[in-house]
Amino acid sequence: MDARLSAPAVARNRDPILAVLRRVLPATGTLLEVSSGTGEHAACFAAAFPGLVWQPSDPDPAARASIAAWAAHAKLDNLRPPLDLDAAAEAWPVARADAVLCINMIHIAPWEAGLGLLRGAARLLPLGGPLVLYGPYRRGGRHTAPSNAAFDASLRAQDPRWGLRDLEVVAAAAADAGFGPPEVVEMPANNLTVIFRRRA
Asked: What is the pLDDT of residues 28-42, one digit of tens each?
């Protein structure tokens, strides 16, 4: 039985995300991907960065099974088995990383998970190391498109702790965790890639 799951959004967003990653990721070292989901991004991006050890993770057992299946299918020496990692937890099963990537998580999780992501990434990264976030945000307290407003409403209907985050709030929390100001890259379908670098 094939445990690989598939998310339609991956086919749409992987190439634009990859274009940003090629510019901001180190050529070598270890990248921790938090909340890897299906594992499709991990398989695609690990192939694109043969010098990086790609460490996927997810707290959901079904997701980890899918990640492992995609990794087995990809047959890449630099793609590690997925870790059980809850971003909100104080202790992570990783001691260090040269880069941290998190795609489409902080709006589909309680805010505590977003804060935990920022704190955890700050613990792992060296000075200047990048934390790369991708997804939809509100800016200046407003949605950037009607589709984002509808998406936000649907998320909050599923769980009131979920929902699109204000970019300014995320940036302030990142500063508190030890990151510099964000580099913001406009992406297709009203998404953003937000790059923070550890400064302290």
From this structure: 999 999 999 999 999
Q: Which two tokens stand for residue 94?
A: 């990783």
**Residue 196 φ/ψ, nearest 5 degrees:** -105, 145
Domain enclosing residue 143, as ranges: 8-197
Burial 75-109 (b: 16+ CB within 10 A, else e): ebebbbebbebbbbeeebebeebbbbbbbbbbbbb
Report field, pTM of the whole predicted structure over 0.70: yes
**Could you tell me which of 200, 198, 188, 84 has the C-alpha nearest to residue 134?**
188
Q: How many domains does the chain have?
A: 1
Structure tokens at 61: 């057992």
Q: Give the whole-angstrom CA distance, residue 152 versus residue 127.
A: 34
Q: Rounded CA gap, 46 and 125, in Å?
A: 19
Q: How far apart are the first and last CA of the chain?
A: 47
